[in-house]
Amino acid sequence: MFYENHNVVEAATRDTHLDTTAAPQDAPVQSVQELEYDGEGDDEEDDEEDDEEDDSASEGDDLREELEEVFEGDFDFRGSYAYSSLFTDAPNPVLNITGVGPIGLPLSPRDAQLIITSATQAPFGHGTETKIDTSVRHTWEIEPARVSFGNAVWRTWMEETVVRGVATALGVPSSTTPPKCELYKLLLYEQDSHFLPHQDTVKAQNMFATIIVVLPSPYTGGQVHVSHSSSQQVFSFDSNSLLSTAVMAWYTDVQHEVKPITSGYRLALSYNLVHVTPGVPPPILPDMHSSIMSLRRVLKKWRTYKYPDIEPNIMCHILSHKYSPAGLSTGFKALKGKDSYLVAQLMPLATEQEFFVGLANLTYHQTGTADGDGGYGDYYKRRRGYGRYGYGRYGYGRYGYGRYGYYDSDCDDDDDEEVPGIDEVTDTTLTVENLFDMAGNKPARSKKISLDLENLVQQDAFEDVEPDEDHYEGYMGNYSGEVEQWYRRTVLIIMPEESARSVLYTSDYALEILHRAALERPGKPSPEDLLFANIVLNNFQHSPATLVTMAQYAVSWNNLELWRRVLSAGNWTASSVLPMKELVAGWKAFSFDSVCNSLEQIVQKAPQISRGISLIRDLVENGPQEDCQMAQQWADQLISQLLTTLEAPTVQDVSLLIETARKQGLSYLTCTLIPRLEKKSGLHDFWLAMIRELESNRTYFVSPPEAEGSSTSETQNQFENTKKRCLDIVLCNWEHGSADPPPVNNTPYYSHRPRPPPQSLVTHTTRVIQILDLCIDVGVLGICKVFLGLVMKKKPPTSDNFQTLYSPVISHIRQKLSTTNESVSFNSDVFVDFMGLILQTLKTPSSADVPWIIDILQTKGAPYMIQSFVPRLEKNVALYHFWYQFITTLVKDETAIVTKSTATDPDSKNSVPRFLDPLTRLWSLLAKAKPLTLQENFQTIYNPLIPQLRQLLTTKNLDISSSPFLELIQVVLGSYLRFVLGARPNPNALVPARKLGCGCSDCQVLDNFLMSKSLEQTFRLVQARRTHLERQLYSGRDLVSFTTIRSGSPHGLVVKKNRQVADYQSWMQRQSQTKTFLGTIGDGNMLRKIAGHRYGDVLTAFEGKQQFMLPWNSVASTSASTNHSSSGATGRTPSTTNSNPTAAPINTSLHGAPPPHLHNPGPSSTQSTSYMWPSQPALSASTPAIVMALGSSNPMPMMTGSALTVPGTNKRKKSTMVSMDTIDLTGED
């Protein structure tokens, strides 16, 4: 496989800002066998010996044992054989060369030439001779005696930064004295300078390594290749050579090569790194040859199936250190010491033998019976031991103290240490997760991979080892306690590349590998690259960006088969499977004949025929000019084929089909398209769009250009017939592909959400609205009327159908006609008949239906509303919101139905307008439909409606103090004063409000509360401040009480005013609200006219001097009121007797019981008194009378014409008087 070069993996262990680009694999590499610096090698002989050993290896060996034996070899070296780093802040050494002078940095070409004129060609050793051969080594050098540094900081930087960093990286023991560096030579590389592979000789006593410091000097090329055993690295700093200082170091027995400089000059200082600790041998590199060869043999046998099969084909080697997932995500850079060295030696062998190598976190979990458990002392205990990293998984136990969030009181630290071991293992699991390759990429498809102990290299890895975490269940009745143990390690993952591709690799990981391969080998794919390309394309979910990348690889690799696979693997996006740029690039790369079949397959996969044809045209337009004629013929033929075989058009295809009809005539639609599609289902939206598009092209089809813009009856008939044929298809199939919406109350008792309708089906409501919109827009109201008949036949206007179908449809039509179509009215015959049928069956209208109901009632007139509509609905007490919206609309809208009847009663002397008869009746219905408390009725009904009633009466030049409105307002006014305002608490029992504080900031807040209308306040203060307030409150126990809340921080001090104070302040608030309410009725003069002889009682009730008494005329006026008016605004004298002694007494109590805050002042306030107003004009027989809701203890009399009927009797009593005092504003029946 292609891997990021193993030299990069090794280089990643150091502090790097280096370019680790690998050298081209086909670059020639010469060998210097007998140089003094070269280590003589017999690699070919070794390989031959290895092959012989491989061939002689017997099958049936244990892979696990052999890998463990190899990894126990000499891999414990804790350093690296080479080091490199880039410094952007290195000091300027102020270089001076005797005979040349100061050298400026970065190095200029002028100074470089001066150095060359004073330097000598660097030699190399060959056996016992020293030779100069520029084909082997081409470098200029200057002796150290001629080199000096003018900056003293340079030496300090070299000793404290460079030498220390190199020593650490090369594994020099920290216990020894830091080595010293000695300048050996100044080296200058010009263009074509190089040095073939070689090894350094020891040039000073105890020298063990070489340091090269590259000073700032612009150049390109000159990569340094270092290798040891089977490990290789590449150091490249040319991209940062202008302003940075690079440092490289390696052991003397490390082979290295300097590639040719391609431009510029490279100036470097060569130092010897010398060991100075006496009595301790210099650091050396271990001899890894035998271990490397053994590891190579094992990997080769594994790859060639010489071992018994294991499932999965993967091995895990436990590393010496543990690494976090964040550390593993950096790949090889995370490794330390022996782990780093082992992987560095393994990586080149893995690349050579085609193995995947990665890092992962391993968890081994085992469960078993407790060792020596049998007593009862641990019954019910649940303990988690310390483990290695603290108290259990999440602190003390899993969720607190113990696994289940509790712990026995005697479970102390000593108990935790006594978690027993496992006597007998009953279950084990081994999983790896957080798998990364050595470059830090995540290849695994799943988060966790389950393995067996057979997949672990180390045998008995967890024997006699303390677990990282354990848990003891304790004694379990007849069974011994259960112990769980967790071991967590970091492992090295090794598996054949072939297995990794099928088990591990994801599409994203394969793309990353291909990307790195393309950077190193552009245009030259390896067999491994093609394998990774297959991994990408075999993924069923391809992003558009992925397909673009793979198409680009196919073109750059000149691989037609891969390009075809990319197209076949893709799905259509916004424009195509691939962008036009990539399609044309493939066309140019492989020729039109090679790609046309694949392009045709793309077109046929288009979700809409219009998009496919659009792609064809774009291809012809953007393709190579030399193929233009051939491509156009292909396009015409393909488009014709697509149009002829069209089976499932979409809305997006309509414009294309109309365009085709414009070219070929309407006969294309009537003779070709419609016959083929008219019986197909699922095309409702298509036909709607087709009709609209036809209508928008009416002018063209009725007056075609060939007719020079003139229309004929033939063309008009052909167009209308075509449109009608499409409409017939829509009407005949309006139910297909649609569904009823879910029932209103379909939520199951165990669910909080209604079941949604099927996503693939539209509701009947949506479908009906779509068709009606179409009929209105294209002006075919006759078909609209026919369609509404079809709908009512299929879906009768039952209660459920009305709520889900007819109500939203009617509201939509009304809104559409009011905003978009001036020629068609909602009150036209087309819709009025339909709405009338709906009204006849309407049982549960909602407030949303009010606008269209009023529109229809305007057309049908007031008699229809009073005689038919209202009686059918008035028994439904659940229509409060509807009646409220209905009455509000009637009052606000001067054009509403109630204003249609303004005739006066010719028999009445007062000539009372009759347009308010329906309103009065509806008002009574509204009160009946909302059986709430009296206060709620005033808030929701009377408070908002009275101002609107006044405004309506003003527009009609009527006085609210005139009959019949006077009696209604008197009842409302008296009820409000009696039951909403109520009696004022005795002020003599009140303690005057006063301040209790001392003047501090806390006391100021307290005093503000005491003087406010608030009844309760909480003070959250620290203890000292709360105590201070409590001292102040002790002096006001007659005003307030207080308690302390112990929850929260700080605690709270709750201060409540006493009941007398609270009641009085509450009444004061109601008095303020009463003032506002009285203002909605009228000013003082209007109130005087309305109240009449009770005006004084109104004032005294408002001032709280005396509670208002009901009925209105059941008591005599106070002395204060006698000065106002003895007969009231109407001059009538109240009667206190019932004029009809045989009828049941009428309860005039306006409320079944007074509100809880009111105290009964005496028997008179709860006594029921019968009273009849003087005679009023009788209602005509054609107008339904007011339905009056009486008290709960009495029947409800109803007026029909001039007769009063008492429920429960068959007697009809003549009566010309209506008792307004009997209207029950509470709505209680």
Automatic annotation (TrEMBL):
It holds the Pfam family 2OG-FeII_Oxy_3. Residues 1132-1150, 1162-1177 have a biased composition (Polar residues). Residues 185-271 form the Prolyl 4-hydroxylase alpha subunit Fe(2+) 2OG dioxygenase domain. Residues 1117-1130 have a biased composition (Low complexity). Residues 35-65 have a biased composition (Acidic residues). Residues 1-65, 1117-1177 are annotated as: Disordered. PANTHER family: FE2OG DIOXYGENASE DOMAIN-CONTAINING PROTEIN, MYND-TYPE DOMAIN-CONTAINING PROTEIN. This is Prolyl 4-hydroxylase alpha subunit Fe(2+) 2OG dioxygenase domain-containing protein. It comes from Lentinula lateritia. The lineage of its organism: Eukaryota, Fungi, Dikarya, Basidiomycota, Agaricomycotina.
